[in-house]
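request received
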Amino acid sequence: MNNQALQKVLIIGAGHNDIGREGQHDAAVTQIGSAIRKLGIAVIFVDNNPFSVAAENNFADKVYLEPLTVGSLSKIIADEQPDGLIPSLGGIQRVNLIQGLIRNNVLKNNHVRLLQWDADMIDLIINPALMSNRLKALGQPVIASQVVASQAEADQVISHVGFPVIVKSVAPRIEASRQLCEDEDDLAQALEMGFKVSATKQCIVEQSIVGYKEIEFVGLRDCKGTALLIAGMENFDPVGIHSADSIVFAPTQTITDQEYQQFRQATLKIMRAMRIVGPCHVQFALDPVTQKYYVIKVTPYFDRAMALAARATGYPLAAISASLMVGVSLAEVKLPSNYRKQTALIEPVLDHIVCRIPVWPFNVLKKVSHQLDTVMESTGAVLGIGRSTEEALLKGMRATDESRYHVIANQPQQYSEGELIQRLIHPQAGQMLVLLEALNRGYQIDELAELTKIDAFYFYKLSHIIEIEKALRDHPFDVHALGRAKYFGFTDEDAADAWQTTPDKVSHFALENEIHPTFKEIEPTAGEFTEQTNTYYSTYEYDNESQPLTGKKALVIGSGANRIGTNHGNDYLVSQLLFYLKKADYQPILVNANPNSVAMTPQLAAKRYVEPKQVSDILNVLAIEKPSVIFTTYHDYHLGRKLIDLGFHVIQIDNSLPKEQIKTNDQPAVEVISDGNDVAIFGISEVIAGNNLRTGVHGSVAVFPIQDKAENQAIEALQAEIKQRVLSYGTPGVYTVRLTIVDATLRLATVEPMSLAKMALISKASGSSVTRLLLHVKLGEPLEKVMYDYPDLTKLNKIFVQANTFPYNQLQIFGDEITGEPGHATGTVIAHGATLREALAALNAGNESTDF
Amino acid sequence: MADRYLILEDGSAYLGEGFGSPAVSTGEIVFNTSMTGYQEIITNQIYHNQIIAFTQPTIGSYGINHDSYESILPTVKGVVVRDVASISTNRQRRWSLDQYLKQQNIPGISHIDTRHLAKNLRASGPMKASIVDVADAHAFDQLGATVLTNQQVAAVATPKPFPNPGTGLNVVVVDFGLKHGILRELSKRACNVTVLPYTATTEEIINLDPDGVVLSTGPGKPQDLPDSVLTMIQNIQNRIPLFAIGLGHELFAMANGAQIMKLSPEHHGANHPIREVITNQIIYASQGQGFAVDPDTIDRNKLITTFVDLIDGTIQGLRYRDFPAFSVQFFPDGAPGPTDALDIFDEFVESMQQARGPIW
Amino acid sequence: MQKEVVDSMALKRALTRITYEIIEQNKGIRNVVLVGIKTRGVYIAQRIAERLQQLEDAEIPVGELDITAFRDDQPLDAALAPTDYQLAFSVAGKRVILVDDVLFTGRTIRAALDALMGGGRPQSISLAVLVDRGHRELPIRADFIGKNIPTARQERIKVSMTEVDGHDGIEIINDN
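response:
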């Protein structure tokens, strides 16, 4: 590598959130961007996600809200002349973009170095066949796969790999599926069908590894070749269920040291041979019978497994990666003083167990198949952290916000025997319930392990959970039963349910009997060294490590599980609240169990609790920290009400989705802020129909600001009325005042809290955060103080447009469930232009196949 | 399961649940941060007479495997964990950890706040501890009065020579309480091995006409061994390629004039970065050490420092300047732990080949 | 047909062992200079020098020799007269360690000795090679050998080094 010192690097963001992609990339950019800036290197950041936290608050020196296309990036590169490009922070789509930049000689002509990877890495990532050959050359076992044109050729493959195999048609003329073949008859049938529908009369025969254990390792390597393992993780569900849709445990729970070291060695060998700088995620399939393994996938760009590895271990992965990316070695990395000096070089070890549990969009999109298979369907995930497998699992299930009756056993389910077996063999979302039901009905552990291909270890743990709950149920107000239940992850609410009493009474009983929660730090050395990550989880043990922060404290309840429906916006709101609370001299404390959340970025909160959001969980944190104020956002309205009833000072921010169907509404609205005494106007917005963007768009497009002279004058005339209506609303906040045209004149229609999407849109358009204003008026500051330096938007000579993205294609949803309502959105895209036409063209650029 | 206590010399008592043997037992307690390989750790003879506390919270999750023993019989005094999975789920279907410890008469205790215990031991260093049924004054008196043996090597090393045949180079392993991993790695390299007791004389070794000699790992303090061991090393090292590991490394250093000091905090885990001085490369390896070579006492005209622990600067490897005799403090065979240092066995084999000269 | 007989790890190990052996046989590194024979011998010499520096914290001079003009089995190259002394330092009184990648017939080494002699009288000259493949035609042997690789005469040995070849390794190539 060229050793000339870097002065300016370009980071390409991940764009809008999607199924399987929530805030993890933006979280990485916020940390890596600011860490690189600290090294004295300028950071240029390009993204089109209005909810990007990295795109605000000085996490980069310069931010471009531009389309993520080769054309647009070429122009930015030509203008900025960065000397390095960080390729790993925008997911697979951005790798494709970088391939375009390389092919068009954009990097070469502008003397931009590709950081972290050799150029051929890009091709390996994009073309799995190339990667497979490369891995083979390194002596790594990969899944055998071959194109065949006859039964005889297929038989040849079988003689090498044996049954079962998967048969797929090459270039099928109809929607064709993968056929799992267990024997000759299956194979003959699958081939006949496959050849018939193939345009080339060919099939692919692939060795099947369905039912193997899926193991995920994350390693880290520097430019000098020093490499270490960050985390070894194990999927609860076997191969065949997408790992994003699978429960994952860190550390590995059921594999031996020999197996573990085999994966560690393979991971580091692959990283060294491919000369990857930074983190790399390698997925393996392990045959539980023979101990033989296969490399399934090598991912050297930032992904959910890396986010999990960082959160689970407390190892400052992003900050360290930032240094490695710009050529600093692991031995030279400088970390903040709360970490031990050599932390970058210490292989993380855990003394806690972390369980990541996916959440699905099926509560909203009810008609989608809930079957879990190789196609990713989850919208996000949560963490449960504890000191036992049981505790981690129960806390994780609780953090999914599912009713605990979905989690806890001894709740009979209405399946027939046949149905139950089918569900065991063909798992669906929320499978834990089915597993518990089967155990309750007396299925043997070995039998269940055989049916589900889930390691028997987990069934022992689930049986233990059932046993503990039964003991709790059988012994009302028994100290031992409660102590044990809490020790393994149950709550006051669970005990209250078992004892038919109230959580409050259980809580008193627990405290009287000295059953106290304790908090332990999530740090990467298992207590061997002193590391201060300021991140804690609860358990019930002897020693409490969390000392309350001093000073003015604000507790912010995080967004938790990322669900469908612009929930990603809520994480942006929480992150911004933390950021501006700190600026306002508060010590912000976050409670959140989402590993992919931007709010978890270490520099945002002064302290983090990775905890579920059940009332008793929150009360445990409050008992330690005693904050002067608690913030809840719109998900947690009920939780906020309960806390208010219990006497806490809670500020509820319930800006959420636009209330009504907005598809056809192209009437203007006035965006305002109020401190309860006065009202200020940001400007006028409009929602226009999606077909202005292109055909086939389900949702609508928000436009801001509208600089139409006549409209502005008309609104000027309505100002007094607007003010009055907003003030009658009472509480300080940001609002959208909808207008309607009656008899060719503008009239006021409704006033509603401004949506998160609108807050982000105005923030991005003005270059100044609306959340900051909202926070300060909520804290009771007068408008003139809050607004004194806010940019004058009437001077803005650009138009910003914003649209939601939907998962209809990904989830194969057709028909009347497609409505384009904000509640179905998974992401949002922003663009701008001198005219509306230009702005819409920019919004569409690079998003030609995006499900708007 | 019965309530039991883990009591420490400093007066602290931890309430837990017993598993394994119900015996009362006393030993020096150390904590190990390895993420995997509980069976290998429990059966490693370096932990003879010690109580091992695991920081990894779930121990026992796949039972006992027949290819994961590091000695024939474990001689630890106790196993301390947060959570024991008393099950055997592995394909080999041997015993659960609980059954195994019962058979071996070793008590275990679970439901211990092992994180707190580790932090406590980190601050105060290893100390005597007991696993008992009642944590009363009597139990603490007993603990205080117990004198732990310093004859650990004699207790665990083989009393008689035994072979581990192979078709390649002829290697003598001097056994101070060796880890099976050493034999496993020599076997992989086809070595024809004879294991001799630690009391082996120079003559007994030379008479076997070895291409190389290995000084094995083992428990305890190197100063507790007879001086005859040092004499043997001094006589062998300039005649036959020598490779010393763990306790063997400490003895090799002593034979060449260096002094051994107590290490605090001790190293028991597999995650420290270790720098190979000659290449400046960083590797990771399994460590289990309560002692270290005092760097100030090394005669630099005799010994070269070859490996250094980057956390606390402790010496992790030495080499004699004038002939192929070298040593490592860590366990290059892993089992459990990283495989980064496995090629030190290749280095040893190549040294032996080189000393024999070309084969044509 | 080609077969990798030494991988990158083993190659690094061989260099490490040679380095230790140089210290063993010279009782330290006082007066030691390394002279690499172009092309790969130079890189090997540099790597040995780096290793010596890591261990002994002393810089060891590394010279380069181009012996094409000196070989008795090659036509004379007019551009480089055999009488030119090629090293930037004098070898007078030094313990010279001549470094090459492969020791085969011994003719390269003989030529290298000729090329060295123009620079004064060294205290000693010894020879370090990464590979000794046998088939000597002159009474020359190496003092430090990375790897003895028995070969047939018609086979070739290819040493790859990251500096010139992008990776480390040794292969046997059989052209038949």
